[in-house]
Automatic annotation (TrEMBL):
This is Succinate dehydrogenase hydrophobic membrane anchor subunit. It comes from the Bacteria. The keyword Electron transport applies. GO terms for biological process: cytochrome complex assembly; tricarboxylic acid cycle. It comes from Massilia atriviolacea.
Amino acid sequence: MAKNNVGRNRLVVGAHYGLKDWMAQRLTAVVMAVYTFTLLISFLTGNNFSYEGWSHLFSQQWFKLFSLVTFAGLYYHAWVGMRDIWMDYIKPVGVRLTLQALTILWLIGCAAWTVQILWSV
């Protein structure tokens, strides 16, 4: 008798990231959209388009935190996407792990740079 590999009997292998990461990418996309909308409203309703005007916006604590949360979401969003690309298209394990490690280091560096920029204003 042949094995039925459909429905509940389907053999599933792999890392099982699936739904959690799909939901995380949707949530981070919503956060990024709200942030973009907030920036757009600030730009359209503002009358000081100089460095001082933008510096004032980014000097407010709530906006710094909102920006930090948004960029953290962006980096996680990018990590999930890049990890999936590396897992799907790079078959040699050593090369894939190296690319994943380099991606993590790059995103950590970007996050540190983001903190430095936001709290230097």
